[in-house]
Write a structure and sequence with these properties.
The chain is an all-alpha fold. The protein has a domain of about 80 residues. Helix 1 runs parallel beside helix 4 and helix 2 packs across helix 5. The longest helix is centred in the last third of the chain and has 22 residues. The two termini are about 25 Å apart.
């Protein structure tokens, strides 16, 4: 599937979503390394499961989710909230949450790559009743 430029009315492309997630993931990894946060397997598992769960729920009404995500304020707000929560987690020494967030983003990027390459159907297909 070719990636196209978006207009304000169009939903962002998979490439744009991936770039946004990757940018936040780079910040999270830098924080984990800089603060020497212990990378807990349970945090990784919770992060990955949360991503799969969210995608499965979002796939149930993919058109509505796509329309909401097309709003620049929603995308910017989501990134801002993620960065604020990550900063708060570091400040109050809950590195486990930073690791879970990084794992969620990493899982999202892997899932995005699998869907983009056609190896896995998009989340909308997960809930289609045929």
């Amino acid at each position: 599937m070719a990636d196209e430029r978006t207009t304000p009315q169009d939903p962002p492309t998979r490439l744009a979503d991936g770039a946004l997630a990757a940018a936040v993931l780079v910040v999270a990894i830098a924080i984990i390394r800089n603060r020497e946060i212990d990378v807990s397997p349970s945090a990784i598992l919770v992060g990955a499961i949360s991503t799969v769960g969210f995608e499965a729920l979002a796939g149930r009404d993919a058109d509505r989710v796509r329309r909401l995500w097309a709003r620049p304020t929603v995308r910017a707000g989501t990134v801002g909230i993620a960065l604020c929560l990550g900063t708060l987690a570091v400040v109050v020494s809950t590195g486990w949450l930073v690791v879970a967030g990084a794992a969620a983003l990493g899982c999202y990027l892997v899932g995005l790559a699998l869907v983009t390459t056609g190896i896995v159907p998009p989340p909308k297909a997960w809930s289609d009743k045929r």
